[in-house]
């Protein structure tokens, strides 16, 4: 490829990036102008119950992930957020089909794998979503100064509470509903995950469009739609958290067995 060809490709890439950022900025301005107010809790609880009845009727037929995402977008509009660990971009892709430039909340704990941060950056630059880094009130250094280094080794529950649970709780305060990628096949603690429920802890509607999916379903969707996935998924990490607390999983093991391995801990507390 000639220097001229390379220059043309580079110029085209910059133009695409500029158009992408302009589209995001336009959406942000329009959203700010609308200034949609948050509805009271009792109204949101009714919407959660209506959504559960509509999407998971008594006859046992559950709505598809696409149908759930469409309902979420129509019902909550600007006040809908997606939580994403950047293990893959399937959930944001599903939701963004109906809610372009939806806020995608990423818990930037300060302990992530480089591959996870790279997936976040690639998503922000290529998908019609708005990535929002959610950070703890203390930096890692400040936390170390108060609690001592490697808190995650000595008290992983407290570390998760400080760097994940509390920051997300604060971030969700401005929304009416949040969408998660929790699946029933991930762990015994998640087998009863509903499509829609009221999240009493965070005081908003919680929506789980992929609840009925398997890991293979997720990978098949990613392949079909050319959706970004974290390269660690192909390197023995079917469940990806903070680097110090995540190990590879052997074939046949519980997909979440690599999280907090050797500890009496299976959840970080976000979905407890």
Entry keywords:
272 residues; 2 domains; globular
CATH topology of the largest domain: Rossmann fold
| Structural class determined from secondary elements | alpha/beta
N/C terminus separation? 54 Å
Mean of pLDDT: 89
Query: What is the topology, as strand order, of the major beta sheet?
Result: 3-2-1-4-6-5
**CATH architectural name of the largest domain:** 3-Layer(aba) Sandwich
Order of helices and strands: HHHEHEHEHHHEEEH
Number of helices: 9
Strand content: 5-15%
Q: Unreliable stretches, pLDDT < 50, 5 or more residues?
A: none
Overall outline: globular
Q: What's the story with the biggest beta sheet?
A: 6 strands, mixed
Domains, number? 2
């Amino acid at each position: 490829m000639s220097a001229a060809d390379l220059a043309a490709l580079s110029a085209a890439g910059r133009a695409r990036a500029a158009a992408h950022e302009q589209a995001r900025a336009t959406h942000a301005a329009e959203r700010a102008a609308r200034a949609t107010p948050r509805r009271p809790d009792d109204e949101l609880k009714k919407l959660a119950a209506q959504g559960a009845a509509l999407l998971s009727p008594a006859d046992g037929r559950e709505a598809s992930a696409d149908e759930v995402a469409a309902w979420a977008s129509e019902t909550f509009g600007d006040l809908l957020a997606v939580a994403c660990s950047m293990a893959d971009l399937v959930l944001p892709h599903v939701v963004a089909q109906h809610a372009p430039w939806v806020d995608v909340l990423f818990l930037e704990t300060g302990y992530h794998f480089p591959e996870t941060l790279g997936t976040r950056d690639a998503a922000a630059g290529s998908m019609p979503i708005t990535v929002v880094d959610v950070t703890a009130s203390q930096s890692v250094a400040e936390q170390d100064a108060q609690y001592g280094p490697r808190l995650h080794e000595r008290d992983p529950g407290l570390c998760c509470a400080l760097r994940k649970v509390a920051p997300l709780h604060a971030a969700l305060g401005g929304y009416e509903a949040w969408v998660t990628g929790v699946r029933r096949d991930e762990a015994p603690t998640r087998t009863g995950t509903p499509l829609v429920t009221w999240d009493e802890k965070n005081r908003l509607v919680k929506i789980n469009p992929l609840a009925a999916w398997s890991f293979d379903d997720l990978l098949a969707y990613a392949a079909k739609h050319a959706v970004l996935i974290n390269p660690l998924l192909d390197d023995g990490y079917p469940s990806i958290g903070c680097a110090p607390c995540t190990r590879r999983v052997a074939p046949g093991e519980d997909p979440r067995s690599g999280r907090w391995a050797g500890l009496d801990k299976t959840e970080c507390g976000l979905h407890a």
